[in-house]
Design brief:
alpha+beta, 2 strands
Length: 64
Amino acid sequence: MVLGENHLRRCLDGYFRYYHHSRTHLSLEKDTPQTRPIEPPQLGRVVEFPEVGGLHHRYTRCAA
């Protein structure tokens, strides 16, 4: 539920940030529009971070 113009702008900003930095695209060979580094298994276990109010998640490696 959107509660006003400022709230809508914050929601859209969060989604656009997710779309460009975290969401993979098949046409980009499973990369994001803002290229991200490959994380080898040596960097540690995979950790989940909620994005867009918990509707989507970003996964990254985190040293133990």
